[in-house]
Amino acid sequence: xxxxxxxxKRELAVxxxxxxxxxxxxxxxxYSRLKHIxxxxxxxFTNFYRFILSRRGFLHLYLDAAHKRYGPAVRFGPNLxxxxxxxxxxxxxxxxxxxxxxxMYRAFRPYTTDGLLLSVFTAADDATNxxxxxxxxxxxxxxxxxxxxxxxxxxxxxxFFDQLDQQFVPTGAQFDLTRWMKFLSYDTMGLMTFSxxxxxxxxxxxxxxxxxxxxxxxxxxxPMTQIPGVDWLLHKNGVANFFKRESIAxxxxxxxxxxxxxxxxxxxxxxxxxxxxxxxxxxxSDFLGYYLTAQEKKENxxxxxxxxxxxxxxxxxxxxxxxxxxxxxxxxxxxxxxxETVRNELLDKQRNAGGLTLPTPQWQELxxxxxxxxxxxxxxxxxxxxxxxxxxxxxxxxxxxxxxIYPGGTVVGMSPYxxxxxxxxxxxxxxxxxxxxxxxxxxxxxxxxxxSLLSVSRLYSMSLMLPMSDYASSGPGHEVVWASTSxxxxxxxLSRPYL
Length: 499
Description:
Blueprint: H1 2-33, H2 48-56, H3 59-70, E1 73-77, E2 80-83, H4 89-93, E3 111-112, E4 115-116, H5 126-133, H6 142-167, E5 174-176, H7 177-194, H8 200-203, H9 210-224, H10 228-234, H11 238-243, H12 249-269, H13 287-297, H14 304-334, H15 336-351, H16 370-382, E6 390-393, E7 399-401, E8 404-406, E9 411-414, H17 416-419, H18 423-426, H19 443-452, H20 456-463, E10 488-490, H21 491-494
Parallel strand pairs: 2-9
Antiparallel strand pairs: 1-2, 3-4, 5-10, 6-9, 7-8
Helix pairs in contact: 2-9, 6-7, 7-14, 12-14, 13-14, 14-16
């Protein structure tokens, strides 16, 4: 009896020792693989460190502090190295020879009973990515966008200024212009996607709760990008969704309902919308019409792609565009000299032979405005809609990035918030909003700055293989970085900024 007890204790001790040895080996192997890359000690062993920072909303600030302490390459996870040198952009993100996406993008894919809903932005598989974007990339080109949607954008802009004039100009009352910019962005995207605004500008509030849905989704998705395995356990399976659906589910329901309505309308009228064809743009069509026509006319295009394309427009297009609108306006208000320069540039344009169409200038008329373009670039640099590291996976053969060798399978990430403030590239005033940096200096220097600008819209354009001048307003929005300290503006001075 005693001997059996001793044997049991011995076997248990051997088992515990074996498990401990395996865990210790795995920890050492995980640590030693990238031990030559400096970084916070705890981050070398667990991803929960940056998950907690993301939950608190300060991941970009902690990562920025880590780069200042450890250098341009920081180990911020067991298998994650964050790089802030813009020289790495072309190696990591170049769409022809760039690295595949990491599992962080799984968090952006909403769960459905048919599996996760992919998009051009979140698809990790190159074949799927090409299949999805080859049918819609033409709709995001500059020629299509202007011909198809400029009149809709003008309509939303007029509605926006009419509401400001009616509600605030007579009394000179202050209001939150950043929120109204968001209303404008969402209503514009509603007109472009569904041929009808959501009604935010008209009613001055989140009428359908879509903006709240997007905000809740972003607050949930952001932290989950840091621990995608746990995200699958908590959100991306049928059991979890049976008890509690994802925060993004109401928005997906809204998109699916609009698609069902449109399909029913087309079936009842037997109208395949010939004006919404793939041969050329049409001012009477919208994104959903283009998507459905592409799905109907082309072989092997599943209806699921229509849901994917439409959902991406609503989730990413409106929020990221609103972020940029608010950034440009608030930076200009905080810099009166720059605002006056923009106004003078527009007035000079108006005095020319062609002039400007008032009250809403046309896109073609607003070309060759170098200082206004510089203000937009500078705002995008300091206030990118996405501040967390955008992750890619080093190919199996390994890679050399900025002189550092990385083994295959290593996840490398770059944060627009940090890369766009890298002092060796942007100068000692990298933290300051200075549009003149895009105008002063040799052309070769300006081209280098343009190649060093890291932003979601830039990467989305690369993924669609569009010219870099044809920025597509899409991709995930994320309200992490907001540089303005003046959210409440007087409508009397800004309700007609181009006059």
